[in-house]
Amino acid sequence: MARDDAQPGVAYGAGLVSLTVLAEGPFTGRPAALASVRVPLERVRSGPIGARLDVRVRRPGRDEAQPIPLSLDGGLWGIDDVPPPEDTEQLLADGRFLAQHVYAVASDTLQIFERTMGRRLGWAGGHRLRIDAYDPVDFRDSGYDPQRQAVRFGHRADPRSSRHVPMALYRDLVAHEVTHAILDGYRPRWADANALLDGFALHEAMADLVAMLSVFSSEARVEQMLQEAGMQGRGTREADEKILRSGLFGLADGLFTRSAVRRPLDREVPFEWTLLPEPHARGEIVVQAVLNTVVELWKQRLDCPGGRSSRFQIAQSGARVGRQVLGMVLRSLAYLPPVDPTWTDLLRGILASDLVMMPYDTPPCGRPSGPDGARPKGYREVLRDMFWNIDLSTDPDARLDGLDDLEGLQYPVRLSALASDPEELNRFVWANPRLMRAMDLDEETSIRIDRVRPTVRVGPDGFVVSEICASFVQDVRLSRREARDRLGLRTEGEVVAVRGGAVLRFDEGGRLCFAALKPVMNGERQQARAATARAEREAAAGAAASYHQEGEREDLPA
Question: Taking the mean position of all CA atoms in its chain, how far away is CA 23?
Protein backbone atom coordinates (compact mmCIF):
# COMPACT_ATOMS: atom_id res chain seq x y z
CA MET A 1 0.00 0.00 0.00
CA ALA A 2 1.38 3.39 -1.02
CA ARG A 3 2.18 5.93 1.69
CA ASP A 4 0.91 9.51 1.46
CA ASP A 5 4.26 10.70 0.10
CA ALA A 6 4.72 7.81 -2.35
CA GLN A 7 4.16 9.09 -5.87
CA PRO A 8 3.19 6.70 -8.70
CA GLY A 9 6.00 7.90 -10.98
CA VAL A 10 6.07 8.52 -14.71
CA ALA A 11 3.08 6.28 -15.43
CA TYR A 12 0.72 8.46 -13.38
CA GLY A 13 -2.46 9.13 -15.35
CA ALA A 14 -2.27 5.87 -17.27
CA GLY A 15 -2.99 3.61 -14.30
CA LEU A 16 -6.46 2.26 -13.68
CA VAL A 17 -7.98 0.66 -10.61
CA SER A 18 -11.00 -1.66 -10.55
CA LEU A 19 -13.80 -0.77 -8.14
CA THR A 20 -16.94 -2.74 -7.36
CA VAL A 21 -20.30 -1.01 -7.88
CA LEU A 22 -23.90 -2.16 -7.94
CA ALA A 23 -24.72 -3.42 -11.44
CA GLU A 24 -28.06 -1.61 -11.36
CA GLY A 25 -29.63 -1.01 -7.95
CA PRO A 26 -29.83 -2.40 -4.41
CA PHE A 27 -32.78 -4.69 -5.20
CA THR A 28 -31.49 -6.26 -8.42
CA GLY A 29 -30.73 -9.84 -7.37
CA ARG A 30 -30.35 -11.53 -4.01
CA PRO A 31 -27.69 -10.52 -3.05
CA ALA A 32 -27.53 -7.41 -5.20
CA ALA A 33 -25.90 -7.92 -8.59
CA LEU A 34 -22.43 -6.36 -8.80
CA ALA A 35 -20.26 -4.96 -11.58
CA SER A 36 -16.69 -3.74 -11.79
CA VAL A 37 -15.58 -0.44 -13.35
CA ARG A 38 -12.02 0.71 -14.01
CA VAL A 39 -11.31 4.30 -13.07
CA PRO A 40 -8.11 6.39 -13.21
CA LEU A 41 -5.78 6.07 -10.26
CA GLU A 42 -5.35 9.44 -8.54
CA ARG A 43 -4.58 11.01 -5.20
CA VAL A 44 -7.84 10.83 -3.22
CA ARG A 45 -8.44 12.60 0.09
CA SER A 46 -11.03 11.45 2.57
CA GLY A 47 -14.43 12.50 1.35
CA PRO A 48 -13.69 11.02 -1.08
CA ILE A 49 -12.23 14.06 -2.86
CA GLY A 50 -10.20 13.72 -6.06
CA ALA A 51 -9.06 16.09 -8.78
CA ARG A 52 -12.50 16.16 -10.43
CA LEU A 53 -14.99 14.90 -7.84
CA ASP A 54 -16.00 15.88 -4.32
CA VAL A 55 -18.28 13.17 -2.90
CA ARG A 56 -19.91 13.76 0.49
CA VAL A 57 -21.88 11.22 2.50
CA ARG A 58 -24.08 12.36 5.37
CA ARG A 59 -25.37 9.47 7.43
CA PRO A 60 -28.76 9.43 9.22
CA GLY A 61 -28.81 11.50 12.39
CA ARG A 62 -25.82 13.64 11.38
CA ASP A 63 -25.96 17.27 10.33
CA GLU A 64 -22.68 17.26 8.43
CA ALA A 65 -21.08 14.87 5.97
CA GLN A 66 -18.45 12.59 7.45
CA PRO A 67 -15.26 12.28 5.32
CA ILE A 68 -14.74 8.69 4.18
CA PRO A 69 -11.37 7.41 2.93
CA LEU A 70 -11.22 5.01 0.00
CA SER A 71 -7.92 3.62 1.28
CA LEU A 72 -8.13 1.14 4.14
CA ASP A 73 -4.94 2.51 5.74
CA GLY A 74 -5.62 6.16 4.89
CA GLY A 75 -2.93 6.44 2.21
CA LEU A 76 -3.74 9.22 -0.25
CA TRP A 77 -2.51 7.22 -3.24
CA GLY A 78 -4.32 4.05 -2.28
CA ILE A 79 -7.83 3.20 -3.51
CA ASP A 80 -8.98 -0.12 -2.09
CA ASP A 81 -11.84 -2.05 -3.63
CA VAL A 82 -14.22 -3.25 -0.91
CA PRO A 83 -17.28 -5.27 -2.05
CA PRO A 84 -20.57 -4.48 -0.29
CA PRO A 85 -22.24 -6.68 2.33
CA GLU A 86 -24.50 -9.37 0.89
CA ASP A 87 -27.27 -8.55 3.35
CA THR A 88 -29.53 -5.79 1.98
CA GLU A 89 -29.99 -4.06 5.33
CA GLN A 90 -26.24 -3.92 5.89
CA LEU A 91 -25.73 -2.70 2.31
CA LEU A 92 -28.11 0.22 2.82
CA ALA A 93 -26.27 1.17 6.01
CA ASP A 94 -22.76 0.92 4.53
CA GLY A 95 -21.59 4.52 4.05
CA ARG A 96 -18.14 3.44 2.90
CA PHE A 97 -19.52 1.39 -0.01
CA LEU A 98 -21.94 4.19 -0.90
CA ALA A 99 -18.96 6.56 -1.22
CA GLN A 100 -17.02 4.03 -3.31
CA HIS A 101 -20.04 3.34 -5.55
CA VAL A 102 -20.78 7.02 -6.25
CA TYR A 103 -17.13 7.95 -6.78
CA ALA A 104 -16.58 5.01 -9.15
CA VAL A 105 -19.75 5.48 -11.24
CA ALA A 106 -19.23 9.25 -11.51
CA SER A 107 -15.56 8.84 -12.44
CA ASP A 108 -16.43 6.13 -14.98
CA THR A 109 -19.12 8.32 -16.56
CA LEU A 110 -16.72 11.25 -16.94
CA GLN A 111 -14.07 8.91 -18.35
CA ILE A 112 -16.53 7.58 -20.97
CA PHE A 113 -17.03 11.12 -22.28
CA GLU A 114 -13.35 12.09 -22.21
CA ARG A 115 -12.11 8.87 -23.75
CA THR A 116 -14.68 9.08 -26.54
CA MET A 117 -14.24 12.78 -27.31
CA GLY A 118 -10.45 12.78 -26.98
CA ARG A 119 -10.21 15.70 -24.55
CA ARG A 120 -10.78 16.80 -20.95
CA LEU A 121 -14.21 18.15 -20.04
CA GLY A 122 -14.79 20.67 -17.29
CA TRP A 123 -17.69 21.28 -14.93
CA ALA A 124 -19.74 24.47 -15.01
CA GLY A 125 -18.93 25.22 -11.37
CA GLY A 126 -15.16 24.73 -11.40
CA HIS A 127 -12.63 21.93 -11.44
CA ARG A 128 -14.59 19.67 -9.07
CA LEU A 129 -18.18 18.48 -9.15
CA ARG A 130 -19.75 18.22 -5.72
CA ILE A 131 -21.98 15.18 -5.21
CA ASP A 132 -24.02 14.88 -2.01
CA ALA A 133 -24.62 11.13 -1.87
CA TYR A 134 -27.03 11.11 1.09
CA ASP A 135 -28.54 14.55 1.33
CA PRO A 136 -31.48 15.77 3.46
CA VAL A 137 -33.40 16.60 0.31
CA ASP A 138 -36.70 15.06 -0.76
CA PHE A 139 -35.87 12.07 -2.94
CA ARG A 140 -38.10 13.54 -5.67
CA ASP A 141 -35.65 16.45 -5.90
CA SER A 142 -32.60 14.22 -6.39
CA GLY A 143 -30.55 15.32 -9.36
CA TYR A 144 -28.26 17.91 -10.85
CA ASP A 145 -28.96 21.45 -9.70
CA PRO A 146 -27.75 23.93 -12.36
CA GLN A 147 -28.01 26.84 -9.92
CA ARG A 148 -25.80 25.17 -7.30
CA GLN A 149 -23.86 23.32 -10.05
CA ALA A 150 -23.87 20.24 -7.86
CA VAL A 151 -25.64 16.89 -7.68
CA ARG A 152 -27.82 16.01 -4.70
CA PHE A 153 -29.20 12.54 -3.98
CA GLY A 154 -31.91 12.12 -1.39
CA HIS A 155 -33.24 8.94 0.19
CA ARG A 156 -36.63 7.36 0.64
CA ALA A 157 -38.55 4.77 2.58
CA ASP A 158 -39.06 1.47 0.76
CA PRO A 159 -41.33 -1.42 1.79
CA ARG A 160 -38.56 -3.86 0.87
CA SER A 161 -36.33 -2.58 3.64
CA SER A 162 -36.54 -1.20 7.17
CA ARG A 163 -33.94 1.42 6.24
CA HIS A 164 -34.18 4.37 3.92
CA VAL A 165 -32.75 3.66 0.48
CA PRO A 166 -30.13 6.14 -0.83
CA MET A 167 -31.04 7.18 -4.37
CA ALA A 168 -27.30 7.25 -5.14
CA LEU A 169 -27.20 3.44 -4.96
CA TYR A 170 -28.98 3.31 -8.32
CA ARG A 171 -26.13 3.20 -10.81
CA ASP A 172 -28.15 4.64 -13.69
CA LEU A 173 -29.32 7.58 -11.59
CA VAL A 174 -25.73 8.58 -10.76
CA ALA A 175 -24.64 8.26 -14.40
CA HIS A 176 -27.73 10.17 -15.56
CA GLU A 177 -27.19 13.14 -13.25
CA VAL A 178 -23.43 13.30 -13.79
CA THR A 179 -24.15 13.43 -17.54
CA HIS A 180 -26.33 16.49 -16.93
CA ALA A 181 -23.40 18.11 -15.12
CA ILE A 182 -21.00 17.24 -17.96
CA LEU A 183 -23.32 18.69 -20.61
CA ASP A 184 -23.92 21.82 -18.51
CA GLY A 185 -20.18 22.44 -18.39
CA TYR A 186 -19.66 21.63 -22.07
CA ARG A 187 -22.60 23.53 -23.58
CA PRO A 188 -24.15 25.78 -20.88
CA ARG A 189 -26.54 27.52 -23.32
CA TRP A 190 -28.34 24.32 -24.26
CA ALA A 191 -30.39 24.52 -21.07
CA ASP A 192 -30.07 28.05 -19.71
CA ALA A 193 -32.86 30.55 -19.08
CA ASN A 194 -33.07 31.44 -22.79
CA ALA A 195 -32.93 27.89 -24.15
CA LEU A 196 -35.68 26.21 -26.10
CA LEU A 197 -37.22 22.95 -24.94
CA ASP A 198 -35.20 20.87 -27.42
CA GLY A 199 -32.07 21.71 -25.44
CA PHE A 200 -33.54 20.27 -22.24
CA ALA A 201 -34.86 17.25 -24.17
CA LEU A 202 -31.40 16.66 -25.65
CA HIS A 203 -30.01 16.68 -22.11
CA GLU A 204 -32.51 14.02 -21.08
CA ALA A 205 -31.92 11.82 -24.12
CA MET A 206 -28.14 11.93 -23.68
CA ALA A 207 -28.37 11.26 -19.95
CA ASP A 208 -30.70 8.28 -20.50
CA LEU A 209 -28.49 6.78 -23.20
CA VAL A 210 -25.31 7.12 -21.13
CA ALA A 211 -27.06 5.62 -18.09
CA MET A 212 -28.42 2.61 -19.96
CA LEU A 213 -25.64 1.84 -22.41
CA SER A 214 -22.91 2.23 -19.79
CA VAL A 215 -24.65 -0.54 -17.82
CA PHE A 216 -25.15 -2.54 -21.02
CA SER A 217 -21.43 -2.34 -21.89
CA SER A 218 -20.63 -5.16 -19.44
CA GLU A 219 -20.57 -8.54 -21.24
CA ALA A 220 -21.18 -10.40 -17.98
CA ARG A 221 -24.24 -8.29 -17.16
CA VAL A 222 -25.66 -8.69 -20.68
CA GLU A 223 -25.21 -12.46 -20.47
CA GLN A 224 -27.02 -12.49 -17.15
CA MET A 225 -29.88 -10.45 -18.63
CA LEU A 226 -30.13 -12.81 -21.61
CA GLN A 227 -30.37 -15.74 -19.23
CA GLU A 228 -33.11 -13.97 -17.30
CA ALA A 229 -34.89 -13.31 -20.60
CA GLY A 230 -35.04 -17.03 -21.32
CA MET A 231 -31.95 -17.87 -23.34
CA GLN A 232 -30.50 -21.15 -22.16
CA GLY A 233 -27.05 -22.56 -22.91
CA ARG A 234 -25.83 -22.13 -26.47
CA GLY A 235 -27.56 -19.26 -28.24
CA THR A 236 -28.09 -20.61 -31.81
CA ARG A 237 -31.73 -20.23 -32.77
CA GLU A 238 -32.84 -18.90 -29.40
CA ALA A 239 -31.34 -15.49 -30.19
CA ASP A 240 -34.45 -14.09 -31.83
CA GLU A 241 -35.35 -10.43 -31.74
CA LYS A 242 -37.77 -10.84 -28.83
CA ILE A 243 -35.07 -12.23 -26.56
CA LEU A 244 -32.54 -9.62 -27.69
CA ARG A 245 -34.99 -6.85 -26.95
CA SER A 246 -35.95 -8.25 -23.56
CA GLY A 247 -32.26 -8.75 -22.80
CA LEU A 248 -31.33 -5.18 -23.65
CA PHE A 249 -34.39 -3.45 -22.32
CA GLY A 250 -34.99 -5.80 -19.42
CA LEU A 251 -32.36 -3.85 -17.53
CA ALA A 252 -35.09 -1.25 -17.00
CA ASP A 253 -36.47 -3.46 -14.23
CA GLY A 254 -33.50 -2.70 -12.00
CA LEU A 255 -33.07 0.95 -12.89
CA PHE A 256 -34.82 3.78 -11.14
CA THR A 257 -35.52 6.36 -13.82
CA ARG A 258 -36.12 4.36 -16.96
CA SER A 259 -39.79 5.05 -17.57
CA ALA A 260 -38.97 5.67 -21.24
CA VAL A 261 -37.66 2.17 -21.97
CA ARG A 262 -40.44 0.45 -20.07
CA ARG A 263 -42.64 1.25 -23.04
CA PRO A 264 -42.53 -1.00 -26.11
CA LEU A 265 -39.83 0.18 -28.48
CA ASP A 266 -41.96 -0.64 -31.49
CA ARG A 267 -44.75 1.64 -30.29
CA GLU A 268 -46.15 4.16 -32.72
CA VAL A 269 -44.26 7.43 -32.75
CA PRO A 270 -46.58 10.25 -31.59
CA PHE A 271 -47.64 12.67 -34.31
CA GLU A 272 -45.45 15.79 -34.22
CA TRP A 273 -43.51 14.41 -31.26
CA THR A 274 -40.98 17.24 -31.64
CA LEU A 275 -43.71 19.57 -30.35
CA LEU A 276 -44.52 17.59 -27.21
CA PRO A 277 -44.52 20.04 -24.26
CA GLU A 278 -42.32 17.97 -21.93
CA PRO A 279 -38.58 17.34 -22.45
CA HIS A 280 -38.66 13.69 -21.31
CA ALA A 281 -41.43 12.90 -23.80
CA ARG A 282 -39.37 14.32 -26.65
CA GLY A 283 -36.13 12.77 -25.53
CA GLU A 284 -37.52 9.26 -25.16
CA ILE A 285 -38.40 9.12 -28.87
CA VAL A 286 -34.75 9.65 -29.77
CA VAL A 287 -33.74 7.12 -27.10
CA GLN A 288 -36.08 4.68 -28.84
CA ALA A 289 -34.39 5.27 -32.21
CA VAL A 290 -30.88 4.82 -30.80
CA LEU A 291 -31.74 1.66 -28.86
CA ASN A 292 -33.50 0.18 -31.88
CA THR A 293 -30.27 0.83 -33.76
CA VAL A 294 -28.46 -1.23 -31.13
CA VAL A 295 -30.92 -4.10 -31.58
CA GLU A 296 -30.66 -4.06 -35.38
CA LEU A 297 -26.85 -3.96 -35.38
CA TRP A 298 -26.79 -6.68 -32.73
CA LYS A 299 -28.90 -8.90 -34.96
CA GLN A 300 -26.50 -8.28 -37.84
CA ARG A 301 -23.48 -9.28 -35.76
CA LEU A 302 -25.13 -12.54 -34.77
CA ASP A 303 -25.23 -13.53 -38.44
CA CYS A 304 -21.44 -13.31 -38.60
CA PRO A 305 -19.52 -16.62 -38.42
CA GLY A 306 -19.57 -17.85 -34.80
CA GLY A 307 -21.92 -15.06 -33.78
CA ARG A 308 -24.35 -17.46 -32.09
CA SER A 309 -21.86 -20.01 -30.82
CA SER A 310 -22.65 -19.37 -27.16
CA ARG A 311 -24.67 -17.12 -24.91
CA PHE A 312 -21.50 -15.31 -23.93
CA GLN A 313 -20.65 -14.70 -27.59
CA ILE A 314 -24.10 -13.19 -28.10
CA ALA A 315 -23.70 -11.05 -24.98
CA GLN A 316 -20.26 -9.93 -26.10
CA SER A 317 -21.65 -8.84 -29.47
CA GLY A 318 -24.43 -6.89 -27.78
CA ALA A 319 -22.11 -5.10 -25.37
CA ARG A 320 -19.74 -4.25 -28.22
CA VAL A 321 -22.56 -2.76 -30.29
CA GLY A 322 -23.76 -0.80 -27.26
CA ARG A 323 -20.30 0.74 -26.81
CA GLN A 324 -20.05 1.49 -30.54
CA VAL A 325 -23.40 3.29 -30.72
CA LEU A 326 -22.82 5.18 -27.46
CA GLY A 327 -19.46 6.34 -28.80
CA MET A 328 -21.11 7.60 -32.00
CA VAL A 329 -23.67 9.58 -30.01
CA LEU A 330 -21.11 11.12 -27.64
CA ARG A 331 -18.70 12.13 -30.41
CA SER A 332 -21.55 14.06 -32.03
CA LEU A 333 -21.52 16.53 -29.13
CA ALA A 334 -18.44 18.22 -30.60
CA TYR A 335 -20.34 18.73 -33.87
CA LEU A 336 -23.44 20.39 -32.42
CA PRO A 337 -23.95 24.18 -32.32
CA PRO A 338 -23.49 25.96 -28.97
CA VAL A 339 -27.07 27.32 -29.01
CA ASP A 340 -30.47 25.99 -30.03
CA PRO A 341 -29.53 22.40 -30.97
CA THR A 342 -32.21 20.45 -32.85
CA TRP A 343 -32.76 16.74 -33.39
CA THR A 344 -31.68 17.11 -37.00
CA ASP A 345 -28.46 18.70 -35.73
CA LEU A 346 -27.96 15.63 -33.53
CA LEU A 347 -28.42 13.16 -36.38
CA ARG A 348 -26.12 15.19 -38.61
CA GLY A 349 -23.52 15.37 -35.84
CA ILE A 350 -23.62 11.60 -35.24
CA LEU A 351 -23.10 10.85 -38.92
CA ALA A 352 -20.51 13.58 -39.60
CA SER A 353 -18.35 12.73 -36.59
CA ASP A 354 -18.40 9.04 -37.45
CA LEU A 355 -17.60 9.74 -41.11
CA VAL A 356 -14.31 11.30 -40.02
CA MET A 357 -13.37 8.12 -38.16
CA MET A 358 -14.75 5.63 -40.69
CA PRO A 359 -14.93 6.95 -44.30
CA TYR A 360 -16.66 3.78 -45.50
CA ASP A 361 -19.97 2.53 -44.15
CA THR A 362 -19.06 -1.15 -43.95
CA PRO A 363 -21.49 -4.00 -43.21
CA PRO A 364 -20.72 -6.30 -40.26
CA CYS A 365 -17.92 -8.85 -40.71
CA GLY A 366 -17.15 -7.40 -44.14
CA ARG A 367 -19.66 -9.79 -45.70
CA PRO A 368 -20.79 -8.83 -49.22
CA SER A 369 -24.29 -10.21 -48.64
CA GLY A 370 -26.56 -11.55 -45.96
CA PRO A 371 -27.63 -15.17 -45.43
CA ASP A 372 -30.61 -14.70 -47.77
CA GLY A 373 -28.45 -13.16 -50.49
CA ALA A 374 -29.55 -9.59 -49.75
CA ARG A 375 -26.95 -6.87 -49.33
CA PRO A 376 -26.44 -6.18 -45.62
CA LYS A 377 -26.78 -2.57 -44.58
CA GLY A 378 -23.89 -0.55 -43.25
CA TYR A 379 -24.17 0.54 -39.64
CA ARG A 380 -24.70 4.22 -40.54
CA GLU A 381 -27.40 3.17 -42.96
CA VAL A 382 -29.11 1.26 -40.14
CA LEU A 383 -28.92 4.32 -37.90
CA ARG A 384 -30.38 6.49 -40.66
CA ASP A 385 -33.27 4.03 -41.02
CA MET A 386 -34.05 4.08 -37.30
CA PHE A 387 -34.10 7.87 -37.27
CA TRP A 388 -36.21 7.86 -40.44
CA ASN A 389 -38.74 5.80 -38.47
CA ILE A 390 -39.15 8.76 -36.11
CA ASP A 391 -39.39 11.19 -39.03
CA LEU A 392 -35.84 12.55 -38.83
CA SER A 393 -33.47 12.68 -41.78
CA THR A 394 -30.50 14.68 -42.97
CA ASP A 395 -28.27 15.26 -45.99
CA PRO A 396 -26.29 12.45 -47.63
CA ASP A 397 -22.75 11.89 -46.36
CA ALA A 398 -21.18 14.09 -49.05
CA ARG A 399 -23.02 17.17 -47.74
CA LEU A 400 -22.80 16.71 -44.00
CA ASP A 401 -19.87 19.11 -43.57
CA GLY A 402 -22.04 22.24 -43.96
CA LEU A 403 -19.49 23.93 -46.24
CA ASP A 404 -21.62 24.40 -49.36
CA ASP A 405 -21.53 28.20 -49.04
CA LEU A 406 -18.12 28.45 -47.40
CA GLU A 407 -15.69 27.77 -50.23
CA GLY A 408 -12.65 29.95 -50.89
CA LEU A 409 -12.15 31.23 -47.34
CA GLN A 410 -9.10 33.24 -46.30
CA TYR A 411 -6.73 31.73 -43.71
CA PRO A 412 -4.64 34.55 -42.20
CA VAL A 413 -3.97 32.47 -39.11
CA ARG A 414 -1.12 30.63 -37.45
CA LEU A 415 -2.00 26.97 -37.10
CA SER A 416 -0.14 26.65 -33.80
CA ALA A 417 -2.09 29.61 -32.39
CA LEU A 418 -5.41 28.46 -33.83
CA ALA A 419 -5.25 25.34 -31.64
CA SER A 420 -5.10 27.33 -28.41
CA ASP A 421 -5.71 31.07 -28.87
CA PRO A 422 -9.32 32.36 -29.06
CA GLU A 423 -8.10 35.60 -30.66
CA GLU A 424 -6.84 33.65 -33.64
CA LEU A 425 -10.36 32.35 -34.26
CA ASN A 426 -11.76 35.87 -33.91
CA ARG A 427 -9.27 36.98 -36.56
CA PHE A 428 -10.32 34.14 -38.87
CA VAL A 429 -14.01 35.04 -38.60
CA TRP A 430 -13.39 38.77 -39.20
CA ALA A 431 -11.20 38.04 -42.24
CA ASN A 432 -13.99 36.09 -43.95
CA PRO A 433 -17.04 38.20 -44.85
CA ARG A 434 -18.52 35.11 -46.50
CA LEU A 435 -18.57 33.33 -43.15
CA MET A 436 -19.94 36.42 -41.44
CA ARG A 437 -22.76 36.64 -44.00
CA ALA A 438 -23.53 32.94 -43.55
CA MET A 439 -23.79 33.59 -39.82
CA ASP A 440 -25.64 36.91 -40.29
CA LEU A 441 -23.33 38.44 -37.71
CA ASP A 442 -23.80 41.99 -36.50
CA GLU A 443 -20.47 43.64 -37.31
CA GLU A 444 -20.87 46.21 -34.54
CA THR A 445 -21.18 43.55 -31.85
CA SER A 446 -18.27 41.40 -30.70
CA ILE A 447 -18.45 37.65 -30.83
CA ARG A 448 -17.62 35.60 -27.77
CA ILE A 449 -15.26 32.67 -28.27
CA ASP A 450 -16.43 29.81 -26.07
CA ARG A 451 -13.44 27.55 -26.58
CA VAL A 452 -10.73 26.48 -28.97
CA ARG A 453 -9.47 22.96 -28.31
CA PRO A 454 -7.50 20.34 -30.22
CA THR A 455 -8.98 16.84 -30.34
CA VAL A 456 -7.10 13.65 -31.11
CA ARG A 457 -8.87 10.38 -31.78
CA VAL A 458 -7.66 7.01 -33.02
CA GLY A 459 -9.84 5.38 -35.66
CA PRO A 460 -10.57 1.64 -35.86
CA ASP A 461 -7.95 1.39 -38.63
CA GLY A 462 -5.27 2.71 -36.24
CA PHE A 463 -4.87 6.10 -37.94
CA VAL A 464 -4.95 9.23 -35.81
CA VAL A 465 -7.63 11.84 -36.52
CA SER A 466 -6.43 15.25 -35.35
CA GLU A 467 -8.74 18.28 -35.51
CA ILE A 468 -9.23 21.67 -33.89
CA CYS A 469 -12.72 22.39 -32.55
CA ALA A 470 -13.79 25.98 -31.99
CA SER A 471 -17.12 27.50 -31.03
CA PHE A 472 -18.39 31.05 -30.66
CA VAL A 473 -21.63 32.87 -29.93
CA GLN A 474 -22.93 36.37 -30.50
CA ASP A 475 -25.53 38.08 -28.31
CA VAL A 476 -27.11 41.20 -29.80
CA ARG A 477 -29.36 43.56 -27.85
CA LEU A 478 -31.88 45.48 -29.93
CA SER A 479 -34.51 48.06 -29.16
CA ARG A 480 -38.12 47.18 -29.93
CA ARG A 481 -37.96 49.26 -33.10
CA GLU A 482 -34.66 47.72 -34.24
CA ALA A 483 -36.02 44.22 -33.69
CA ARG A 484 -39.05 45.05 -35.81
CA ASP A 485 -37.15 46.80 -38.60
CA ARG A 486 -34.17 44.46 -38.85
CA LEU A 487 -35.68 41.09 -37.98
CA GLY A 488 -39.43 41.50 -38.27
CA LEU A 489 -39.84 40.67 -34.57
CA ARG A 490 -42.76 42.19 -32.72
CA THR A 491 -42.29 42.13 -28.98
CA GLU A 492 -43.68 43.80 -25.88
CA GLY A 493 -40.34 44.48 -24.20
CA GLU A 494 -38.33 47.63 -24.75
CA VAL A 495 -35.15 45.60 -25.30
CA VAL A 496 -34.86 42.39 -27.27
CA ALA A 497 -31.89 40.00 -27.01
CA VAL A 498 -31.16 37.64 -29.90
CA ARG A 499 -28.32 35.19 -30.18
CA GLY A 500 -26.71 32.65 -32.45
CA GLY A 501 -23.50 30.69 -32.62
CA ALA A 502 -21.37 28.22 -34.51
CA VAL A 503 -19.11 25.24 -34.19
CA LEU A 504 -16.17 25.28 -36.59
CA ARG A 505 -13.83 22.33 -36.98
CA PHE A 506 -10.44 22.58 -38.67
CA ASP A 507 -8.44 19.66 -40.03
CA GLU A 508 -4.79 19.01 -39.21
CA GLY A 509 -3.79 21.36 -42.04
CA GLY A 510 -5.74 24.24 -40.50
CA ARG A 511 -8.52 24.22 -43.12
CA LEU A 512 -12.18 24.41 -42.18
CA CYS A 513 -13.68 20.92 -42.54
CA PHE A 514 -17.03 21.19 -40.74
CA ALA A 515 -19.44 23.95 -39.74
CA ALA A 516 -22.67 23.97 -37.75
CA LEU A 517 -24.17 27.46 -37.90
CA LYS A 518 -27.04 29.14 -36.10
CA PRO A 519 -27.31 32.60 -37.76
CA VAL A 520 -27.79 35.60 -35.51
CA MET A 521 -29.43 38.45 -37.47
CA ASN A 522 -31.52 36.17 -39.62
CA GLY A 523 -35.13 37.32 -39.50
CA GLU A 524 -36.63 34.01 -40.55
CA ARG A 525 -34.73 32.03 -37.91
CA GLN A 526 -35.34 34.51 -35.11
CA GLN A 527 -39.04 34.80 -35.94
CA ALA A 528 -39.40 31.01 -35.91
CA ARG A 529 -37.43 30.81 -32.66
CA ALA A 530 -39.61 33.48 -31.01
CA ALA A 531 -42.78 31.67 -32.10
CA THR A 532 -41.47 28.38 -30.72
CA ALA A 533 -40.49 29.97 -27.40
CA ARG A 534 -43.93 31.59 -27.11
CA ALA A 535 -45.72 28.31 -27.85
CA GLU A 536 -43.58 26.45 -25.31
CA ARG A 537 -44.34 29.02 -22.60
CA GLU A 538 -48.06 28.75 -23.29
CA ALA A 539 -47.98 24.93 -23.28
CA ALA A 540 -46.10 24.92 -19.98
CA ALA A 541 -48.58 27.38 -18.43
CA GLY A 542 -45.72 29.58 -17.30
CA ALA A 543 -43.66 26.83 -15.63
CA ALA A 544 -39.95 27.12 -16.32
CA ALA A 545 -38.33 24.32 -18.29
CA SER A 546 -36.12 22.06 -16.19
CA TYR A 547 -34.31 18.74 -16.24
CA HIS A 548 -36.85 16.95 -14.07
CA GLN A 549 -40.63 16.86 -14.20
CA GLU A 550 -42.91 16.86 -11.18
CA GLY A 551 -43.69 13.35 -9.99
CA GLU A 552 -40.93 11.80 -12.13
CA ARG A 553 -39.67 9.71 -9.22
CA GLU A 554 -42.91 8.99 -7.39
CA ASP A 555 -43.13 5.30 -8.27
CA LEU A 556 -40.97 2.55 -6.90
CA PRO A 557 -38.94 0.66 -9.48
CA ALA A 558 -40.24 -2.74 -10.49
Answer: 19
